[in-house]
Amino acid sequence: xxxxDLHVLHVDDDEIACQLLGSxxxxxGVRFTAVHSAEHLDSAIENLRPSIVVLDLMLPRVDxxxxxxxxxxxxxxxxVIMLTALADETERIIGLEMGAxxxxxxxxxxxxxxxxxxxVLRFGGAQSTRPVGPALDRIQFGRFELTLSRxxxxxxxxxxxxxxxxxxxxxxxxxxxxxxxxxxxLVRLLESRSGSSCTRSIYVAILRLRRxxxxxxEQPRVIQTVRTRGYMFVPEADAGDSEIE
Length: 245
Fold this sequence. Notes:
This protein is of the alpha/beta class and 245 residues long. It folds into two domains: 7-123, Rossmann fold; 163-238, Arc Repressor Mutant, subunit A (Orthogonal Bundle), CATH 1.10.10. 40% of the residues lie in helices and 19% in strands. It has nine helices and eleven strands. The chain has a five-stranded parallel beta sheet, with helices on both faces. The protein has a four-stranded antiparallel beta sheet with strand order 6-7-8-9. The chain has a two-stranded antiparallel ribbon with strand order 10-11. The longest helix is centred in the C-terminal third of the chain and has 15 residues, at 199-213. It is elongated, with a radius of gyration of 19 Å. The protein starts with 6 loop residues before the first strand and ends in a 12-residue tail after the last strand. Residues 125-135 and 237-245 have low confidence and may be disordered.
């Protein structure tokens, strides 16, 4: 078995779940550390230097959102995936907007969590400002190249004129390829970054964005709509023959 350089720090008060996950990650050659409280999460990260933190939302004393907020006040670099058993999407949206890179709903398969971990580390999160290498910082699709750190867009090597709302949405979607992002999450994104909180502004921004990046804005293939759920960035190589509605 090949040993991985990956180190997962899991914060969950369910000791049995931690043991099961620990066995799974060990079988994959992944270093796994579990702690059962988020009270000293910052010091645990400082001491252990994990590749990523998997943080349960429902924790005693200090809940996951509070722990995430405290962490992001001084650490914007460590990737975080939230675990939540809540059916309500609101808490997940708040977590993403507070700086989580992804979330996984309970119950879940351990291999799903591992896949999400690899995806976050490979693509980076839109909320994260951690330094990324050139391959992660630049996202190429079709004739376009998006640079996340500069939030700039090139077409055939030339700068593209694009509004603040549109580049924020594009960066948020493109850094999470093939993942549905709800309209509510995008509203919160614009509210937190540009002060705009009108739901209608999302529709307008998506329309403008499609006019920039789509070959045919009337039949979008890159920024696809997932009916009742939100929007999804589909890299050119993964784009299907029909739009998802």
